[in-house]
Amino acid sequence: MTLDSFQLATAADVEFLAALINAAYRPENSNTAWTHESALVTGARINARQLLEIILKSDTVILIASAQQQRLACVQIEKKLGQCCYIGTLAVNPTMQMAGLGKQILNYAEHYARTQFGAQKLVMSVLSARAELIAFYLRRGYRQTGELLEYPITSGVGIPKQSGLKLEVLEKLA
Fold it and tell me: Could you tell me the residue range of the domain that residue 41 belongs to?
């Protein structure tokens, strides 16, 4: 399946986005998704209020990707200092994972970061325990920086099920 349209998320999309992101990151039935973090983190990954705050930021967009008029994926792109963009909150409907949609929306997000924000470097953070997801990004040209960040317990993105959970920073030249 090919993603055939991309739109900027608006305030009207926050409920849809919250459901999509939470289903992709923390599905109730862990057999439905290719990769998720349900074994590592409990609770919602994001809520409508957090999404609205992201959407209202002037230096950030959330793109919603569709195929055949069905919204299936999203990704956040945030302009950082200099010519750097943060890519995050990439989510694909769990029933459509393994169909190449993640690669497609990541490619589009990288293109958007370059053309709309002038990005020359792309940065992301991934749970360090998610080896399969890190491998996915390494195959797309990202590299491990060696930088590890503390899990953001106070930011309302869920509670780790294990102590010492870290975020690993990956980067790629745009």
Answer: 5-122
Asked if residue 145 is part of any domain, the answer here is no
**pTM to 2 decimal places:** 0.94
β-bridge pairing 166-173 and 121-127? antiparallel
The model's confidence at residue 30, banded by pLDDT at 50, 70 and 90, is low
- 139-157 pLDDT tens trace: 999 999 999 999 998 999 9
Q: How many domains does the chain have?
A: 1
